[in-house]
Amino acid sequence: MRELSLHILDLVTNSIEAAANRIIIVVEERPSDNLFRIRIRDNGKGMSKEMVKKAGDPFTTSRKTRKVGMGIPLIQQVASDCGGTLKVCSSPGMGTTVTVEMEYSNINRPPLGDIVNTIINLMISNPEIHFCYIHTVNSSRFCLDSYWFLARMAEKNGNIYDIIQPAKEYITKGLLKMGASIPNP
Description:
By secondary structure, the chain is an alpha+beta fold.
Protein backbone atom coordinates (compact mmCIF):
# COMPACT_ATOMS: atom_id res chain seq x y z
CA MET A 1 0.00 0.00 0.00
CA ARG A 2 1.39 3.33 -1.03
CA GLU A 3 -0.53 5.48 1.46
CA LEU A 4 -0.92 5.26 5.21
CA SER A 5 -4.63 6.03 4.87
CA LEU A 6 -5.05 2.65 3.16
CA HIS A 7 -3.34 0.93 6.09
CA ILE A 8 -5.72 2.81 8.40
CA LEU A 9 -8.66 1.57 6.32
CA ASP A 10 -7.37 -2.00 6.60
CA LEU A 11 -6.88 -1.80 10.37
CA VAL A 12 -10.33 -0.28 10.86
CA THR A 13 -11.82 -3.03 8.70
CA ASN A 14 -10.29 -5.51 11.17
CA SER A 15 -12.03 -3.63 13.99
CA ILE A 16 -15.35 -3.77 12.16
CA GLU A 17 -14.95 -7.51 11.56
CA ALA A 18 -14.26 -7.89 15.30
CA ALA A 19 -17.76 -6.50 15.98
CA ALA A 20 -16.62 -3.09 17.23
CA ASN A 21 -19.29 -0.41 17.43
CA ARG A 22 -16.92 2.35 18.58
CA ILE A 23 -13.62 3.01 16.81
CA ILE A 24 -11.18 5.79 17.60
CA ILE A 25 -8.69 6.73 14.89
CA VAL A 26 -5.81 8.94 16.00
CA VAL A 27 -3.15 10.37 13.70
CA GLU A 28 -0.35 12.32 15.35
CA GLU A 29 2.13 14.34 13.35
CA ARG A 30 4.94 15.71 15.48
CA PRO A 31 7.65 16.91 13.11
CA SER A 32 9.31 18.73 16.01
CA ASP A 33 9.86 15.33 17.70
CA ASN A 34 10.38 13.43 14.42
CA LEU A 35 7.33 11.28 15.24
CA PHE A 36 4.42 10.07 13.16
CA ARG A 37 1.94 7.91 15.09
CA ILE A 38 -1.25 6.12 14.12
CA ARG A 39 -3.47 4.58 16.80
CA ILE A 40 -6.64 2.59 16.16
CA ARG A 41 -8.64 1.68 19.26
CA ASP A 42 -11.84 -0.33 19.23
CA ASN A 43 -14.30 -1.99 21.58
CA GLY A 44 -14.52 -5.19 19.52
CA LYS A 45 -14.22 -8.75 20.72
CA GLY A 46 -10.46 -8.48 21.31
CA MET A 47 -7.79 -11.15 21.05
CA SER A 48 -6.13 -13.59 23.39
CA LYS A 49 -2.48 -13.10 24.38
CA GLU A 50 -1.55 -15.94 22.04
CA MET A 51 -3.32 -14.33 19.10
CA VAL A 52 -1.68 -10.95 19.85
CA LYS A 53 1.75 -12.63 19.76
CA LYS A 54 0.94 -14.13 16.35
CA ALA A 55 -0.65 -10.96 14.88
CA GLY A 56 2.49 -10.09 12.90
CA ASP A 57 2.50 -13.48 11.16
CA PRO A 58 0.74 -13.28 7.77
CA PHE A 59 -0.33 -16.91 8.08
CA THR A 60 -2.25 -16.25 11.26
CA THR A 61 -5.78 -14.92 11.00
CA SER A 62 -9.09 -15.38 12.75
CA ARG A 63 -10.93 -15.18 9.44
CA LYS A 64 -12.67 -18.27 8.15
CA THR A 65 -12.74 -17.09 4.53
CA ARG A 66 -8.98 -17.16 3.93
CA LYS A 67 -5.89 -18.39 5.67
CA VAL A 68 -3.76 -15.25 5.46
CA GLY A 69 -3.98 -11.84 7.11
CA MET A 70 -1.61 -9.27 5.64
CA GLY A 71 -2.80 -6.03 7.30
CA ILE A 72 -0.77 -6.13 10.51
CA PRO A 73 2.38 -7.61 8.88
CA LEU A 74 2.34 -4.95 6.14
CA ILE A 75 2.01 -1.98 8.49
CA GLN A 76 4.56 -3.59 10.81
CA GLN A 77 7.02 -3.70 7.90
CA VAL A 78 6.30 -0.06 7.04
CA ALA A 79 6.93 0.97 10.65
CA SER A 80 10.17 -1.01 10.75
CA ASP A 81 11.35 0.49 7.44
CA CYS A 82 10.73 3.94 8.91
CA GLY A 83 12.64 3.46 12.16
CA GLY A 84 9.48 2.70 14.11
CA THR A 85 7.44 0.04 15.84
CA LEU A 86 4.03 -1.56 15.91
CA LYS A 87 2.33 -2.50 19.16
CA VAL A 88 -0.90 -4.46 19.57
CA CYS A 89 -2.69 -4.45 22.93
CA SER A 90 -5.79 -6.55 23.28
CA SER A 91 -7.74 -8.84 25.54
CA PRO A 92 -10.90 -10.85 24.92
CA GLY A 93 -14.06 -8.82 25.41
CA MET A 94 -12.11 -5.58 25.92
CA GLY A 95 -11.21 -4.54 22.37
CA THR A 96 -7.91 -3.89 20.67
CA THR A 97 -5.51 -0.98 20.30
CA VAL A 98 -2.98 -0.95 17.46
CA THR A 99 -0.27 1.71 17.70
CA VAL A 100 2.14 2.37 14.84
CA GLU A 101 5.04 4.77 15.36
CA MET A 102 7.60 5.86 12.81
CA GLU A 103 10.06 8.63 12.17
CA TYR A 104 8.27 11.61 10.69
CA SER A 105 11.16 12.60 8.45
CA ASN A 106 12.13 9.08 7.37
CA ILE A 107 12.51 8.94 3.61
CA ASN A 108 10.70 5.58 3.54
CA ARG A 109 7.57 6.87 5.31
CA PRO A 110 4.65 6.71 2.88
CA PRO A 111 2.46 9.80 2.63
CA LEU A 112 -0.69 9.89 4.71
CA GLY A 113 -2.67 10.01 1.49
CA ASP A 114 -6.39 10.58 1.14
CA ILE A 115 -7.36 10.38 4.79
CA VAL A 116 -10.37 12.64 4.15
CA ASN A 117 -12.09 10.15 1.84
CA THR A 118 -10.98 7.23 4.00
CA ILE A 119 -12.76 8.67 7.04
CA ILE A 120 -15.85 9.67 5.05
CA ASN A 121 -16.13 6.25 3.39
CA LEU A 122 -15.89 4.56 6.78
CA MET A 123 -18.63 6.83 8.17
CA ILE A 124 -21.13 6.44 5.35
CA SER A 125 -20.61 2.71 4.84
CA ASN A 126 -20.92 1.97 8.57
CA PRO A 127 -23.43 4.47 10.01
CA GLU A 128 -24.12 2.17 12.97
CA ILE A 129 -20.50 2.49 14.14
CA HIS A 130 -19.41 5.48 16.22
CA PHE A 131 -16.15 6.78 14.74
CA CYS A 132 -13.99 9.38 16.42
CA TYR A 133 -11.20 10.76 14.26
CA ILE A 134 -8.56 12.82 16.03
CA HIS A 135 -5.66 14.35 14.15
CA THR A 136 -2.92 16.40 15.79
CA VAL A 137 -0.05 18.36 14.31
CA ASN A 138 2.34 19.33 17.11
CA SER A 139 -0.01 21.11 19.56
CA SER A 140 -2.92 21.72 17.13
CA ARG A 141 -5.85 19.31 17.19
CA PHE A 142 -8.76 18.42 14.92
CA CYS A 143 -11.62 16.11 15.97
CA LEU A 144 -14.53 14.61 14.07
CA ASP A 145 -17.33 12.62 15.67
CA SER A 146 -19.35 10.59 13.16
CA TYR A 147 -22.46 10.66 15.36
CA TRP A 148 -22.38 14.45 15.28
CA PHE A 149 -22.45 14.43 11.48
CA LEU A 150 -25.17 11.79 11.38
CA ALA A 151 -27.28 13.80 13.82
CA ARG A 152 -26.79 16.83 11.58
CA MET A 153 -28.07 14.82 8.63
CA ALA A 154 -31.12 13.68 10.60
CA GLU A 155 -31.95 17.30 11.51
CA LYS A 156 -32.07 18.16 7.81
CA ASN A 157 -34.14 15.06 6.96
CA GLY A 158 -31.51 14.13 4.41
CA ASN A 159 -30.01 10.83 3.53
CA ILE A 160 -26.56 9.66 4.49
CA TYR A 161 -25.06 10.77 1.19
CA ASP A 162 -26.05 14.37 1.91
CA ILE A 163 -23.25 14.61 4.46
CA ILE A 164 -20.44 13.67 2.07
CA GLN A 165 -19.66 17.12 0.72
CA PRO A 166 -20.06 19.00 4.03
CA ALA A 167 -17.96 16.36 5.77
CA LYS A 168 -15.22 16.62 3.12
CA GLU A 169 -15.15 20.38 3.47
CA TYR A 170 -15.14 20.25 7.27
CA ILE A 171 -12.35 17.68 7.52
CA THR A 172 -10.22 19.23 4.77
CA LYS A 173 -10.52 22.72 6.25
CA GLY A 174 -9.65 21.48 9.74
CA LEU A 175 -6.63 19.49 8.59
CA LEU A 176 -5.26 22.21 6.30
CA LYS A 177 -5.66 24.81 9.05
CA MET A 178 -3.34 22.73 11.26
CA GLY A 179 -0.85 22.05 8.48
CA ALA A 180 -1.55 18.31 8.33
CA SER A 181 0.27 16.38 5.61
CA ILE A 182 -2.65 15.78 3.27
CA PRO A 183 -2.79 16.25 -0.49
CA ASN A 184 -4.24 19.59 -1.54
CA PRO A 185 -7.96 19.29 -2.35
